[in-house]
Write a structure and sequence with these properties.
Number of strands: 35
Number of helices: 8
Distance between the termini: 74 Å
Radius of gyration: 41 Å
């Protein structure tokens, strides 16, 4: 951890002339007297007995410690945008109907000056709920990790909320089950697999130091809850409800809490404490803007859910322009921004239409790398790169049955890698194909044939491949003069839209009749009828003139009778 100059505020009690009015000699709070004073002075809050009002001053001081802050110039600063559209009230707790309580359950630091640790952890837990868009997530992280000597920046005698958050950023903090809170200083005793459950944050930024800038804090609160320092006076210990303003009692200590929202109508912040759910408004309180130093030394964090993804490679055919489109998700959510607000920076920017656009156009004359950095409104960054390659050729591979039997179909399939779909196909010899624009063909051959296919993609890139298909003697046939029997092949193509082609064989001279029927058995066509010499023949039927449906092709020759089915579609 880098060494920096620290500003350490020592807890020196200040004596108030009103101290005797609300405390007994041992420091216990006289709640009845305090409420009487509040009523007399027209205060807008009231007190009630609780665990802290029954503590002596010595006992209460054991729950406080030094609050250590860094040198302001050493901490990254949150950039205020001076937004004009901020709502008049807002809360990550449930006061303003944000769809649930986005904060984790209230904790109790007990008899240990660890408010700095509880505030830091409470901020992280709430922000994880918000980033996950799940108010019920409620992870429970280990404050004891920070209080013990696992972390060198604090103990039950006090500590630094800033350095606690830096520790969570650099090392991570496990869940409560790994190292349960004991409210004592002790050697580090993490569970063996603590890293498995450890949560990290991406960044820590300073909102305000000694000047509580209300606008800056509000802008940050639109993103997530923020840690803040305040001064505790004796009367604050008895807070029960209403808008707190210091009215009476001695200064006791500096304290660290979590701001969760505001209400301009009441000029107050909503805040989360670490004194248990029986204190205040179920562990929360309202406090007037600027009262008791509230809003000083506030911090915002970033959680690394920001993701950016670009294709590894984009291929273009010739020196050309191409749009670079990233996939961006996650990042700091921001109530009031939909979608989340990102900034973009591309490099090199000299050949881009706009180096700060989400999806600029790149003008590419040679193979080039482009790098993108995306930042969310919290300052978290994510990066990726894309390589633009100039290559006019697609990788085209023509697969086929390289040797087939006579009068059996040859199957041709083309595979294409690269390029930009859709693809256009052109097959040769063109006269053999009924259809061109398809990646698969099935065709009957009467002789050995060389096939080729050329493919062009949507950007004009192209590629070709060739294959040769040879014919083998069909074991069913031993030559024209020695055909073993009559046969009728299945149609090609099948289904057919325009034309269906058949082959038939005649082993010896004789009468052959081929008839086309519909599915009801009605005779429609007689494409072949009469004497045929021994040989192999081909005929076609014009399916374009037939309604779509299933048809039967029947061949009769003496005692031979065979039927083939053909499907007609449009």
């Amino acid at each position: 951890m880098k060494s920096i100059t620290l500003v350490i505020v020592f807890l020196l009690p200040l004596v108030s002339s009103a101290s005797s009015q609300i405390t007994y000699p041992d420091g216990r709070l006289d709640v009845e007297r305090l409420n009487s004073i509040l009523e007399e002075r027209g205060a807008s809050w009231r007190a009630a007995d609780n665990e802290r009002t029954g503590m002596t001053r010595v006992e209460r001081m054991q729950t406080f410690g030094e609050v250590i802050q860094p040198e302001p110039s050493s901490v990254p600063r949150f950039k205020k945008k001076n937004r004009k559209d901020l709502p008049s009230s807002f809360s990550w707790h449930d006061w303003t109907g944000m769809g649930g309580d986005w904060m984790s359950p209230i904790r109790n630091q007990r008899n240990c000056g660890s408010c700095w640790a509880f505030a830091a952890v409470g901020q992280v837990e709430g922000t994880y709920n918000i980033v996950a868009s799940n108010p019920e997530l409620d992870i429970n992280l280990s404050e004891q990790t920070l209080v013990s000597d696992c972390f060198s920046g604090g103990s039950c005698m006090g500590g630094s909320p800033y350095w606690a958050l830096v520790y969570v950023m650099d090392i991570g903090i496990p869940d409560e089950a790994c190292y349960r809170y004991r409210a004592v200083d002790e050697p580090c005793n993490l569970c063996d697999d603590w890293e498995f459950s450890a949560r990290k944050i991406q960044s820590v930024q300073l909102l305000t130091d000694t000047i509580a800038d209300i606008q800056t804090i509000k802008e940050a609160l639109m993103i997530e809850p923020v840690v803040s320092q305040m001064e505790v006076y004796a009367d604050f210990n008895g807070y029960h409800y209403g808008i707190y303003e210091h009215t009476s009692g001695d200064f006791e200590a500096l304290h660290v809490v979590v701001l969760v929202g505001w209400n301009d109508a009441d000029s107050c912040w909503y805040a989360r404490n670490s004194w248990g759910a029986s204190w205040g408004i179920v562990g929360y309180f309202k406090i007037r803007y600027g009262d008791s130093g509230i809003g000083q030394w506030t911090y915002i964090i970033g959680i690394d859910t920001l993701r950016v993804s670009l294709p590894d490679t984009i291929t273009i055919c010739v020196p050309d322009s191409v749009e670079l489109v990233p996939d961006v998700s996650g990042g700091a959510p921001c109530y009031g921004y939909d979608p989340p607000e990102y900034s973009y920076l591309w490099s090199p920017g000299n050949c881009l239409s706009d180096s700060t656009a989400r999806a600029p156009v790149a003008y590419v004359a040679e193979d080039s790398w482009f790098h993108l950095t995306v930042a969310d409104i919290n300052g978290t960054e994510a990066e990726d790169s894309v390589f633009v390659r100039i290559d006019p050729h697609l990788d085209v591979r023509l697969g086929a049955d390289t040797s087939i039997y006579l009068l059996t179909p040859a199957h041709l399939i083309v595979n294409v890698d690269g390029g930009t779909p859709p693809y256009d196909y052109h097959w040769e010899p063109e006269s053999l194909f009924l259809f061109q624009d398809t990646s698969e063909q099935s065709i009957f051959l009467e002789e050995e044939t060389e096939f080729s296919v050329c493919v062009e993609d949507a950007r004009g890139c192209f590629g070709c491949d060739t294959t040769f298909v040879s014919l083998l003697p069909n074991p069913y046939l031993s030559g024209i003069e020695n055909i073993k029997g009559y046969f009728l092949t299945s149609p090609f193509p099948n289904p057919a839209s325009d034309v269906a082609m058949f082959f038939y064989g005649v082993p010896k001279e004789g009468t052959v009749e081929i008839t086309i029927y519909n599915i009801l058995g009605e005779k429609l066509l007689v494409p072949v009828s009469g004497e045929r010499e021994s040989g192999i023949y081909r005929f076609e039927i014009q399916t374009a003139s037939l309604p779509r449906g299933v048809y039967l092709c029947r061949m009769e020759a003496g005692s031979f009778n065979q039927i083939r089915k053909v499907v007609v579609f449009r």
